């Protein structure tokens, strides 16, 4: 009994260590089920499997048998983890596989091409195998919609230099006040200069869940960021959105480089709570900032989650 408790404690410690290491590097890690983890920062999906030696086998073959059993269990858990990932605000990977036989076949094959990350030999003679597949690359290419692009950036109104909100059309500009072009300078009040290099949307406290193909819409439901404004090549290579739990860490993330526009979201939306609503004025700021160097096209976008 004591031995079993010790082994379980060791396994829990290993899992906690993996999660802590991931978070220490500013990544967002999501647990899916009991044996799967999606590392949205590193764009990896990982799972573990446990295999026990078969006492009916010869002693010399029991260790190899336990390893193979652990691999099979890890593969089964990996497929379940992949299926549990949100694809869009309305669809999971499992839904996509059920609805499309071609996608189902592709995903099954991609998951079987896993990489072994670690093999751990436990004191009770069981074996744990940890495996992973990239979330980007082949998996993203199989799952993301084919139709990308076609969206046109909206013409943004000049901004108030004090509050950063869009200046109302037709309202006279007081003498001595110079309106701000959203795409030409740093964030009002931030003390930064130069064009914006990315977008960080703060969704803390909104219950946002990560997804492979999320959207940002304005208060009228118009798409501000999503497949219409993204290069599919970049979406496949690095994912449409990066996730973090800290705004300051996200500001320094290489995805959005050195001067991102930071926006506070209004709410999370969609059945899976993966999409964000931003204020209409902020939607204009986002498209105005993207006019200078189109960071939306290159997926230089991060969401801040709980």
- Poorly predicted runs are 1-26, 185-191
Mean pLDDT over the full residue set: 86
Our Rg estimate from Cα atoms comes to 23 Å
Spatial shape: elongated
Report the order of strands and helices.
HEEEHHHEEHEEEHEHEEEHE
Q: Which sheet architecture does the biggest sheet show?
A: 5 strands, antiparallel
Q: Span between N and C termini?
A: 38 Å
Q: Within the largest sheet, what's the order of strands? A: 1-2-3-5-4
Explained architecture:
This protein has 306 residues and is α/β, with parallel strands linked by helices. It folds into two domains: 25-143, no CATH class; 149-306, no CATH class. The protein contains eight helices and 13 strands. It has helices at 2-24, 59-83, 93-99, 101-112, 138-143, 232-238, 247-251, 280-290, and strands spanning 29-32, 36-39, 44-51, 115-121, 127-134, 198-202, 216-217, 223-225, 242-244, 260-264, 267-269, 275-277, 301-304. Strand 2 (36-39) and strand 3 (44-51) form a beta hairpin. Helix 2 (59-83) packs antiparallel against helix 4 and helix 3 packs across helix 4 (101-112). It starts with a helix and ends with a strand.
């Amino acid at each position: 009994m004591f031995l079993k408790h010790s082994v379980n404690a060791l396994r829990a410690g290993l899992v906690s260590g993996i999660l802590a290491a991931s978070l220490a590097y500013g990544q967002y890690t999501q647990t899916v089920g009991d044996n799967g983890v999606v590392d949205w920062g590193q764009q990896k999906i990982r799972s573990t499997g446990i295999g026990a030696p078969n006492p009916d086998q010869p002693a010399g073959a029991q260790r190899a048998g336990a390893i193979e059993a652990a691999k099979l269990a890890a593969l089964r858990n990996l497929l379940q983890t992949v299926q549990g990932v949100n694809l869009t605000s309305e669809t999971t990977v499992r839904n996509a596989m059920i609805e499309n036989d071609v996608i189902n076949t592709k995903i099954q094959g991609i998951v079987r091409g896993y990489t072994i990350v670690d093999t751990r030999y436990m004191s009770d003679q069981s074996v744990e195998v940890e495996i992973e597949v990239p979330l980007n690359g082949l998996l993203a290419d199989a799952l993301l919609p084919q139709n990308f692009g076609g969206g046109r950036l909206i013409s943004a109104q000049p901004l108030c230099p004090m509050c950063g909100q869009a200046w109302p059309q037709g309202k006279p500009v007081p003498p001595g006040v110079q309106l701000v072009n959203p795409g030409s300078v740093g964030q009002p009040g931030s003390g930064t200069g130069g064009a914006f290099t990315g977008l960080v949307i703060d969704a803390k406290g909104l219950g946002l869940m990560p997804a492979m193909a999320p959207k940002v819409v304005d208060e009228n439901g118009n798409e501000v960021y999503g497949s219409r404004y993204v290069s599919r090549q970049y979406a496949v290579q690095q994912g449409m959105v990066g996730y973090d739990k800290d705004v300051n860490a996200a500001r320094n993330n290489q995805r959005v480089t050195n001067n991102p526009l930071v926006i506070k979201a209004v709410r999370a939306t969609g059945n899976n709570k993966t999409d964000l609503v931003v204020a209409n004025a902020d939607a204009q700021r986002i498209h105005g900032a993207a006019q200078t160097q189109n960071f939306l096209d290159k997926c230089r976008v991060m969401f801040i989650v709980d």
